[in-house]
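Field: sequence (string)
Field: structure_tokens (string)

Example rows 1 and 2, in order.
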Amino acid sequence: MLPETVAREIIASHQQRPRNRGELVGAPFITLENQGCGDQVTVWARLEEETIADLHFDGKGCAISQSSASMMTLALKGRTLAEARALSASFQQMVMGEANPDPLLGDLQALSGVSRLHARRKCALLPWKALAGLLETAPGA
């Protein structure tokens, strides 16, 4: 588990300088909104065979949803669909308080504190749910 000050720095870094933000021209996308708070995220994914070749997002909302999306793109780009699904499951279990942070999550461990904030869990999971929905509709996925 990351120290709280380190976790805050990681979240702030991704909020202030999001990685892989912006449209991925020509790639399939999906947009989801958290009705409870108004957070919105659009996720684009370019697949090459069974690999996430590129992954981008855009959106608006709180630091949790936007930093989660930014970290997700870094964590999953270049991974196979099976690896991405496994990492996603581990992240979801951590956020829901069902499992301790797995060191394999890397910087995503910074969001482990969200498990104590029930209303914020949906914020952290929003981009991941968008990606899951997108992958369900992807040909061959």
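Row 2 begins here:
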Amino acid sequence: MFDIGFWELLFVALIGLLVLGPERLPVALRGFQRGVQKMKSFGTSVQAELNHELRIKELHEHLSKAEKMDIEQLSPELQRSMAELREAAAGVQRPYAKKNSVEPKDDADDSSSAAENDKSKPSS
């Protein structure tokens, strides 16, 4: 990677030993190792995020191509998938909307049921 040979590596280790001393050299090497690991993990996370974004873009392109094509020309599996995706998108757009609307009762029905309850109770 860096094309460092044995003698160059030995020279860097000797300079590090002279500058840092035998007490601080292992600590410095561990710190360097942690820094390299953090850089690698950062690079891996950036790469994973870029792959995810590229995959999303690719899916959007495929979806736009499918929408430009005639829907009837798609296979039945793709048509079902498109319908499921549309339902999921509609559910995400209106997450708090009620699925089954309940009709409100009329006031006349409430008063008649209250009158029936009064009739069924014995009067004292």
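free_text_note (row 2): DSSP finds three helices and no strands in the chain.
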